[in-house]
């Protein structure tokens, strides 16, 4: 099923708004991670606006779904989605990386509504997602546990220990979202340590696998639905994305992994995202 015309327009507007926040926040801070934030925009927008069972007015509600940003450096997109969803004021986004603010470069689970764990040290999120998935089973709760992982991050051994664990405990309430933008900090993933045959790898670990275009909102929506329908095993959504998506000079390069646009570059980016 595809989104209605109204819904498609809503997501077109929302994802542009979020991409504008990303470039403005990083420009204002003079630092941050725009590349991997722009690649994850559709994935997080559709997840939070269509699927996550959360209440921005009661962020610590016990039976909420949980989301873990394992690639914790991509706070520009995470904070933007949370703010647009109503967890905190949109105006606060411009305090990104302020020493006295709470929107740190990497998310702090204690201080920001909607952020369930602190992250930034790559490789850890899926282990936490498993913990939430397991306790949900023990509690008899329908709570679901989502975790976004970068493709470069898949080089961390802990991810694969966690992947074994999710399957061993039949955690069908756990969903891993791989932002497969093919680029890590300073090169293409295939040049550093490749993640070839990713679908086969996850299947061999006992996972259900859905492979999609991570910028196609309908495909993203269907993938999350399929994950919810899948019983007895965890689901990995392998989302093909473009690092820097939406800003021509940031696309498909590692240059914008951790670099902020200057004022001139911001102006060009905002024109493209108008
Ligand atoms: C354990 C650990 N090692 C190294 C880093 C430094 N680091 C930050 S981001 C990054 C690359 C991540 O690449 P990827 O997972 O593909 O992220 P994306 O392209 O989606 O931004 C690295 C190596 C870190 N944060 N944690």
From TrEMBL:
PROSITE patterns: TRANSKETOLASE_1. GO terms for molecular function: transketolase activity. Keywords: Metal-binding, Thiamine pyrophosphate, Transferase. It comes from the Bacteria. It is an enzyme of class 2 (transferase). Its cofactor is thiamine diphosphate. Pfam families: Transketolase_N (PF00456). Belongs to the transketolase family. Residues 14-267 form the Transketolase N-terminal domain. This is Transketolase. The keyword Transmembrane helix does not apply. Its EC number is 2.2.1.1.
């Amino acid at each position: 099923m595809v989104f209605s015309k109204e819904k498609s327009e809503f997501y077109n507007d929302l994802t542009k708004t979020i991409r504008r926040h990303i470039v403005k926040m990083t420009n204002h801070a003079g630092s941050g991670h725009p590349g991997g934030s722009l690649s994850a925009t559709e994935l997080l927008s559709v997840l939070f606006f269509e699927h996550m069972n959360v209440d921005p007015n009661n962020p610590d509600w016990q039976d909420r779904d949980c989301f873990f940003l394992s690639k914790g450096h991509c706070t520009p997109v995470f904070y933007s989605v949370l703010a647009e969803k109503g967890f905190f004021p949109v105006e606060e986004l411009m305090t990104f990386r302020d020493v006295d603010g709470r929107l740190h470069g990497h998310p702090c689970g204690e201080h920001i509504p909607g952020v369930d764990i602190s992250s930034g040290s790559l490789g850890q999120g899926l282990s936490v997602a498993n913990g939430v998935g397991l306790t949900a089973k023990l509690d008899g709760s329908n709570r679901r546990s989502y975790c976004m992982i970068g493709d470069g991050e898949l080089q961390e051994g802990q991810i694969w220990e966690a992947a074994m664990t999710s399957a061993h405990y039949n955690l069908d309430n756990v969903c891993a979202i791989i932002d497969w933008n093919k680029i890590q900090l300073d090169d293409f993933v295939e040049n550093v340590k490749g993640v070839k045959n990713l679908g086969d790898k996850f299947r061999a670990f006992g996972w259900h696998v859905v492979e999609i275009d991570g910028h196609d909102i309908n495909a993203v929506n269907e993938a999350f639905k399929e994950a919810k329908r899948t019983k007895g095993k965890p689901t990995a959504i392998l989302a093909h994305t473009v690092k820097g998506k939406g800003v021509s000079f940031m696309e498909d390069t590692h240059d914008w992994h951790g670099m902020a646009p200057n004022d001139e570059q911001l102006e060009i980016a905002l024109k493209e995202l108008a």
